[in-house]
Write a structure and sequence with these properties.
Blueprint (H helix, E strand, L loop, with lengths): L8 H9 L4 E3 L8 H8 L4 E4 L2 H11 E4 L4 H13 L1 H17 L2 H18 L1
Parallel strand pairs: 1-2, 2-3
């Protein structure tokens, strides 16, 4: 077994942008931040229907497959790679979701919310 060392963000983004498809066959998952990172690199995502990943992919940013089901995983990957419209649509919607979940944007929105609450008091 070989483990690659950790990468700097720029290197990781280049790797993610250089692949045709990002696959996340998790058995359990939190938000699925790595899927958002792949989306922000213009890479379609196939992931399992678990945790926050379910919510994220159901918004159209990727293709959902059954967890612990190699046949479902294969079919999901094949579906995305064989359907140019689905492939492009996944990229477009993934970019939109990545932008919506961008940490700088969320911090700015929270700041505006807290500032508005202070002004009301």
């Amino acid at each position: 077994m070989h483990f690659h060392p950790s990468l700097e963000q720029e290197q990781l983004a280049a790797w993610m942008a250089g692949v045709d498809l990002f696959v996340l066959p998790s058995h359990m998952e939190g938000l699925g931040l790595v899927a958002l990172e792949a989306m922000s690199c213009h890479t379609p995502v196939v992931g399992t229907d678990v945790g926050g990943l379910s919510f994220l992919l159901k918004e159209g940013g990727g293709t959902i497959v059954a967890p612990r089901d190699p046949d479902s995983l294969y079919e999901g990957m094949k579906r995305v790679m064989d359907d140019p419209d689905l492939y492009r649509g996944s990229i477009e919607e993934g970019e939109r979701l990545a932008e919506r979940h961008d940490s700088r944007k969320i911090v700015r929105q929270l700041n505006e919310l807290y500032t508005g609450m202070e002004e009301q008091q």
